[in-house]
């Protein structure tokens, strides 16, 4: 794992997080270094686990996923084995896009996409509600999205000249 990132590393991360589809030459130009050291830095960021992967950001509606829902899930039992079992089960449900273990009254928060509410209910009744340890599921339908910023904030502090 990389422990110390310099300004150039942070610029690379900031640029790639906003636009990950560019050549190394284009990235190097935007960062202000030549291509070979840019490629080495990029490889170090990947090998160090700072960059975990690359993906396309898809429009759900263009693929008929017209609703997004959040489901709070409470389990009957909170043993580590039961929590891990639930997490493993979530990997098998494609509509569950994100699964967070949370504190509070419920144990998990799921982000789910579906074609429509009926599609979600069908999946809910055949999957989530069939898991033996699930006590309750409370669903919230997303009505709109005011902000969807990918990744995490990457602050680049310019050095004083």
Would you give an account of this structure?
The protein is α+β, with helices and mostly antiparallel strands and 161 residues long. It folds into two domains: 7-47, Arc Repressor Mutant, subunit A; 60-141, Lrp/AsnC effector binding domain/regulation of amino acid metabolism (RAM) domain (Alpha-Beta Plaits, 2-Layer Sandwich). The protein has helices at residues 7-18, 24-31, 35-47, 80-91, 117-126, and strands spanning 67-75, 96-101, 108-114, 134-141. It has a four-stranded antiparallel sheet. Strand 2 (96-101) and strand 3 (108-114) form a beta hairpin. The chain starts with 6 loop residues before the first helix and ends in a 20-residue tail after the last strand. The mean pLDDT is 92.
């Amino acid at each position: 794992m990389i422990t110390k990132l310099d300004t150039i590393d942070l610029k690379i991360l900031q640029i790639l997080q906003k636009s990950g589809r560019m050549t190394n030459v284009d990235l190097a130009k935007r960062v202000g270094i030549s291509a070979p050291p840019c490629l080495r830095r990029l490889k170090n960021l990947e090998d160090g686990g700072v960059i975990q992967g690359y993906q396309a950001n898809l429009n759900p509606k263009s693929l008929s996923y017209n609703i997004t829902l959040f489901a709070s899930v409470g389990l009957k039992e909170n043993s580590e084995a039961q929590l891990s079992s639930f997490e493993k089960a979530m990997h098998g449900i494609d509509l569950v896009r994100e699964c967070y273990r949370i504190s509070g009254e419920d144990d998990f928060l799921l982000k789910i996409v579906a074609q429509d509410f009926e599609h979600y209910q069908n999946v809910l009744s055949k999957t989530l509600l069939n898991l033996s340890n699930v006590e309750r599921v409370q669903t919230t339908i997303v009505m709109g999205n005011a902000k969807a910023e990918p990744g995490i904030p990457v602050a680049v502090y310019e050095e004083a000249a």
